[in-house]
């Protein structure tokens, strides 16, 4: 009984203790996180700058004007690109007509591009050679455009930032491209331009429904050279598989494909609506994911058995008909075909085969072309098998091969045998000698359709280009002088850049834009991420089901209009207006659609209140390209990236410019001198640089934070982004992504999404050693205007949190888990110290996660990635500000969960235990979710993915019913430009190490600029830091009047000063004020001010203590006098400024020129008016030129706000290096000093002069 009582008492004490800790944790961490965040970010100062020094006005916004402007820009841009393509065609046709095609040499082949010729081109984000290179279809001599035409294509590329590859493929399989890149020259059919999507789609732009039928009978295991051949050669099965792969390569994402393999029986390809469901025998869109399963079926076949055509045709038509029944739209205005490959005559009845084919054509509306491919010499023995294959392909049209074709008999599915069964196809007999050409022969199936030779440009659907994102191909057929098809010329454009105004549409919080192409194909949409994953093709009705049928018809048919729609935004149904307008003059029927919410129609215009003086600034590329801007002495490298440690650099998002292409030329440095002069022209900056007034306002305001950023804080990078797309980073570096927009980065969106909180953001997929701290800042309008952020080391954050935790935590038998609001763990704190943990709560504390899940504190969030078809499971935490306490006797549930107010951090205080009573102590932790039911909200799983129930991969439909939520696009943390080690100049030295990344005290102390902090705040866990937290500060008081003759009893004054200091800080419960034993050498008294929680002494306390202290003293005669005591932070009442002009002797000059003194006084007034305010300039007095110096006095105006006079005195340093007119001759000011004085605080008998 006694033992049971003790155990129960211990449990009660533990629960009470951690409850008490939880409350202290919330209070302490909230205060410390704010102080920490303010110290790292300088947040308070920056928000004050944007609040006090800005003028915000709202512009009238007309939606249709905005849409018209976007459409006009895109029409002009796209027209220029089309002109380039047409000019390329003219050049090729003219060169061919003039017999200027040349035989290209082996060194000119793409596979022989020399590494020394490659250079990094940010337009392609890869290494390329600025020349043409060639590929040929065989080993024979091939001709193409001469390499001397390189300049034509180079000029195209350099004049337009939107162009990527330019290329041409001819009807013989020869190919050239600009710029050159390393490519294989293996002669394989899939490298032949004739079998590429861009070539085939140009020749036959219609969508295609293709069923490939492959014979897998036993004879297919024979050598392609013949059944009895002994020569080394691939099997018929192998070349058949390669031929099928070649056909697949000709298909685009708007085409559909199916496969049938047959011998005695037949097997057709399947489609699973989700990867967890049963397969359906139907055709699939020719997308990347679907192609994988099709290829698996092709390559998995093993030759065996006999040859039965009937079953094969039955399965082929079942694929076609079932697909048409499920999705009839894909068969509208399409080319439907069966490509049937066999190496032997059928063993089943020819009548039965014709019956299956006729029945299938009836189901398909007699639309299917049949292409027969007969492999091997076996078909040459007699005309009977040949004529039957011709009969199958001819489809009772009686026209194939211009020879007698047997008429089809009357069948149960063909009552009138005088009518065609279907459209005419083709038959190809491939003898043994040509067996290895099967890929080429089958790959040219499309050539039997009418070749398009018109002037209309063909636009491809969006495709992925490695390292570059989305691209679109524009192509045209090329004809010879006789009008015969010669080949196809094409060029790729960067889709995201070409339609930048749509892809990066920014208006308010929820409004968005998208681009629709021919047949309603979606080219750009917020739900189609702009990352590196392969793109699937979706249509307007799939991604925007809320549009009415009339609106969908109008948009897909190139009509203009608008419609009010309802959209779900963050679980709330909101009204918006959908505006749509087509781009005129293009065959692709592009239409721009903008969806605008009422809350977003206010557009801000930002101006600085101090707009008269525009600062010089460093654009992010200038410092690294033009050495006259920043010399090598001012550059170092960190993490293989160039850095300017003493300066910040600025980058504008492309959308910040009026002329997008001009901005991109700046980014590529193709117009560097122009960009440099524009950015240096600070008079009328916005006009010269081509940016809006709001962007210019941001640059001006950002200039005021430079001094804050130069104060050491241990941040690796500090940066700021604004709603106008302006990005500034310190220390300065080069941002390689020409499309980088801070508004689309994770740190920005996360901070704006929770604008009142300090956000701690980890980067598990990029750099686990850093954490980003970010917070949104506001303007006088109370609207978010931007985000200030910094990258710090994880070690820095762990040290801060641990040293804070030990003040309120009892780590003898408890531990802390610190995580973000998604349940992602940052670290664990216990008696051994802090440990970084990159995992999820469900994995580390499954019992806790389970309990929180059942109580609704931890909530499941499902989203759907429309590109991959996956559903992603994640979590969110919400305690509503309360302490969560299970109150359980289960050791695994003895914990407290508390949120850190005004941040996205949560803390779990728990007692580690291996003995749990609860059965729910495990969570399924697999990459693939064990349960993929969106309705089951209480099943504990680690973050995972599975096939989305909202996606149907077969019909390519999205079921946007209740619960559907698209996954956000991929957010990438901004990156620096990495240097190739071979390009690193030997004169560029490594930057100073990041102090907080050093864990050894000796190494820290040996590193210049680093300090080993081990006392006060750091006494539990030391840190190597640029600047240790100062939890104690000495404040020294002295007489304001330096030349005072009064003799003071400082010992008697000490208690009075201490009393006043305590009174000034009495409102702060954290302040400790104590007398300092040592006194100033020149007479004075000091007090020591500190914090009771070992946090940094706030500057605001020191400012309060800096106000003058009035004291009364008596002389020997009993007369009293009032004196003032000041500190080094006390605002001066006046100042003496001294200008040094070396080589000038004003004493001698004044003797020779009697008017010089008055002239110099005017010049001094002129200089002062140029660097400070009018109010301060009016106070200039006591101008005194003597020897090589001119001195004068300034007084603080009465109405000047606190700190402004000191700040204005700093502006006088800008006079250093400027010229001064000394009556007919300019002299250079070589030195400037501004000393603080307190004359107005001194007795009248203490003169300042």
TrEMBL record:
Lineage: Eukaryota, Metazoa, Spiralia, Lophotrochozoa, Mollusca
GO cellular component: voltage-gated calcium channel complex
Protein name: VWFA domain-containing protein
Stored InterPro entries: Ca_channel_alpha-2/delta, VWF_A, vWFA_dom_sf
A single GO molecular function term of this UniProt record: voltage-gated calcium channel activity
VWFA domain span: 209-418
Source organism of the structure: Magallana gigas
Signal peptide span: 1-17
Gene3D superfamilies: PAS domain, von Willebrand factor, type A domain
UniProt-listed SMART domains: VWA
Protein keywords: Signal
């Amino acid at each position: 009984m006694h033992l049971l009582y003790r155990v129960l008492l211990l449990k009660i004490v533990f629960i009470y203790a951690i409850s008490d800790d939880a409350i202290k944790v919330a209070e302490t961490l909230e205060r410390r996180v704010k102080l920490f965040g303010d110290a790292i970010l300088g947040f308070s100062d920056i928000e004050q700058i944007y609040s006090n020094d800005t003028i915000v006005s709202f512009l009238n916004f007309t939606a249709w004007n905005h849409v018209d402007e976007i459409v006009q820009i895109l029409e002009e841009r796209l027209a220029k690109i089309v002109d380039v393509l047409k000019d390329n065609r003219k050049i090729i046709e003219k060169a061919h007509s003039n017999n200027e095609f040349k035989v290209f040499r082996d060194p000119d082949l793409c596979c022989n591009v020399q590494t020394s010729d490659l250079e990094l081109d940010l337009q392609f984000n890869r290494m390329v050679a600025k020349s043409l290179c060639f590929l040929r279809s065989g080993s024979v001599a091939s001709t193409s455009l001469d390499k001397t035409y390189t300049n034509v294509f180079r000029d195209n590329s350099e004049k337009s930032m939107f162009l990527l590859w330019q290329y041409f493929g001819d009807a013989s399989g020869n190919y050239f491209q600009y710029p050159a890149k390393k490519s294989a020259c293996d002669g394989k059919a899939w490298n032949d331009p004739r079998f590429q999507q861009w070539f085939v789609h140009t020749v036959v732009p219609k969508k295609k429904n293709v069923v490939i039928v492959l014979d897998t009978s036993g004879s297919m295991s024979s050598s392609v050279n013949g059944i009895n051949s002994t020569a080394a050669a691939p099997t018929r099965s192998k070349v058949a598989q390669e031929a099928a792969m070649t056909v697949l390569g000709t298909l685009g994402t708007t085409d559909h494909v199916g496969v049938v393999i047959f011998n005695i029986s037949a097997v057709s390809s399947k489609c699973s609506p989700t990867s967890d469901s049963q397969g359906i025998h139907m055709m699939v869109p020719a997308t990347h994911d679907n192609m994988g399963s099709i290829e698996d079926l092709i390559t998995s076949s093993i030759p065996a058995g006999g040859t039965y055509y009937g079953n094969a045709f039955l399965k082929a038509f079942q694929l076609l008909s079932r697909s048409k029944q499920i999705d009839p739209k894909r068969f509208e205005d399409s080319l439907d075909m069966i490509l049937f490959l066999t190496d032997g005559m059928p063993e089943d009845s020819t009548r039965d085969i014709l019956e299956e084919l006729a029945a299938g054509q009836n189901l398909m509306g007699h639309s299917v072309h049949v292409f027969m491919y007969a492999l091997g010499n076996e078909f040459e023995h007699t005309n009977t098998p040949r004529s039957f294959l011709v009969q199958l392909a001819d489809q009772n049209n009686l026209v194939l091969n211009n020879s007698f074709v047997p008429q089809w008999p009357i069948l149960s599915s063909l009552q009138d045998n005088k009518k065609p069964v279907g459209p005419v196809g083709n038959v190809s007999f491939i003898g043994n000698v040509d067996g290895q050409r099967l890929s080429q022969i089958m790959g040219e199936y499309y050539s039997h359709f009418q070749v398009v030779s018109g002037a209309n440009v063909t636009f491809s659907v969006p495709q992925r280009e490695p390292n570059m994102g989305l691209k679109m191909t524009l192509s045209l057929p090329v004809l010879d002088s006789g009008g015969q098809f010669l080949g196809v010329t094409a060029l790729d454009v960067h889709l995201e850049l070409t339609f930048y105004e749509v892809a990066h549409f920014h208006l308010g919080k929820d409004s968005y834009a998208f681009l629709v192409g021919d047949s309603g194909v979606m080219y750009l949409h917020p739900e189609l991420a702009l990352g590196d994953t392969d793109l699937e093709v979706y249509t307007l009705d799939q991604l925007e089901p809320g549009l009415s049928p009339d609106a969908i018809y109008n948009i897909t048919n190139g009509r203009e209009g608008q419609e009010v729609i309802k959209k779900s935004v963050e679980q709330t149904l909101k009204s918006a207006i959908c505006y749509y307008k087509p781009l005129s003059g293009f065959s692709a029927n592009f239409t721009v659609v903008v969806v605008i919410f009422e809350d977003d129609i206010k557009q801000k215009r930002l101006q600085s209140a101090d707009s008269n003086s525009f600062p010089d600034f460093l654009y992010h590329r200038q410092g690294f390209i033009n050495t006259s801007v920043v010399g090598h002495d001012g550059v170092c490298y960190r993490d293989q990236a160039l850095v300017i440690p003493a300066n910040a650099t600025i980058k504008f998002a492309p959308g910040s410019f009026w002329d997008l292409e001009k901005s991109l030329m700046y980014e590529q440095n193709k117009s560097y001198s122009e960009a440099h002069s524009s950015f240096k022209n600070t008079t009328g900056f916005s006009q010269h640089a081509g940016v809006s007034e709001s962007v210019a306002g941001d640059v001006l305001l950002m200039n005021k934070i430079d001094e804050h950023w130069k104060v050491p804080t241990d941040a690796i990078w500090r940066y700021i982004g604004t709603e106008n797309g302006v990005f500034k980073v310190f220390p300065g570096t080069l941002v390689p992504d020409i499309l980088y927009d801070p508004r689309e980065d994770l740190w920005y969106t996360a901070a704006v999404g929770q604008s009142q909180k300090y956000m701690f953001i980890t980067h598990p997929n990029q750099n686990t050693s850093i954490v980003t701290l970010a917070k949104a800042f506001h303007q006088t309008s109370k609207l978010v205007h931007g985000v200030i952020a910094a990258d710090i080391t994880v070690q820095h954050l762990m040290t801060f949190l641990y040293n804070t935790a030990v003040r309120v935590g009892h780590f003898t038998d408890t531990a802390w888990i610190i995580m973000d609001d998604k349940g992602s763990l940052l670290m664990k704190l216990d008696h051994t110290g802090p440990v970084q943990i990159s995992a999820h709560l469900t994995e580390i504390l499954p019992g806790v996660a389970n309990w929180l899940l059942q109580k609704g504190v931890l909530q499941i969030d499902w989203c759907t990635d429309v590109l991959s078809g996956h559903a992603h499971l994640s979590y969110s935490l919400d305690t509503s500000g309360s302490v969560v306490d299970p109150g359980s006797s289960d050791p695994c549930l003895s914990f407290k969960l508390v949120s850190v107010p005004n941040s996205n951090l949560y803390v779990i205080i728990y007692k580690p235990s291996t003995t749990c009573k609860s059965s729910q102590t495990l969570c399924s932790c697999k990459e693939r979710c064990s349960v993929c039911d969106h309705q089951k909200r209480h099943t504990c799983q680690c973050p995972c993915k599975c096939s989305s129930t909202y996606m149907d991969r077969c019909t390519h439909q999205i079921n946007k019913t209740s619960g559907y939520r698209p996954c956000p696009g991929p957010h990438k943390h901004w990156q620096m430009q990495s240097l190739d080690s071979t390009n690193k100049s030997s004169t560029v030295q490594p930057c100073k190490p990041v102090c907080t990344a050093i864990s050894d005290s000796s190494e820290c102390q040996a590193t210049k600029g680093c300090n080993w902090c081990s006392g006060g705040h750091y006494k539990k866990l030391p840190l190597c830091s640029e600047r240790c937290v100062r939890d104690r500060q000495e404040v020294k008081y002295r007489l304001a009047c330096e030349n005072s003759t009064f003799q003071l009893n400082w010992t008697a004054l000490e208690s009075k000063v201490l009393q006043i200091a305590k009174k000034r800080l009495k409102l702060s419960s954290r302040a400790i004020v104590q007398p300092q034993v040592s006194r100033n050498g020149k007479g004075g008294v000091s007090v020591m001010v500190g914090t009771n929680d070992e946090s940094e002494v706030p500057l605001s306390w020191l400012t309060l203590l800096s106000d003058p202290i009035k004291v009364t003293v008596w002389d020997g005669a009993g007369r009293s006098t009032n004196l003032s005591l000041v500190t080094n932070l006390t605002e001066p009442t006046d100042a003496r400024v001294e200008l040094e002009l070396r080589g000038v002797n004003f004493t001698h000059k004044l003797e020779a020129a009697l008017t010089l003194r008055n002239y110099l006084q005017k010049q001094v007034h002129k200089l002062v008016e140029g660097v400070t305010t009018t109010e301060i300039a009016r106070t200039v007095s006591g101008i005194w030129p003597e020897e090589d110096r001119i001195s004068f006095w300034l007084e603080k105006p009465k109405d000047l706000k606190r700190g402004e006079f000191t700040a204005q005195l700093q502006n006088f340093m800008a006079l250093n290096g400027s010229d001064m007119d000394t009556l007919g001759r300019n002299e250079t000011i070589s030195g400037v000093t501004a000393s603080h004085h307190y004359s107005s605080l001194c007795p009248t008998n203490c003169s300042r002069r």
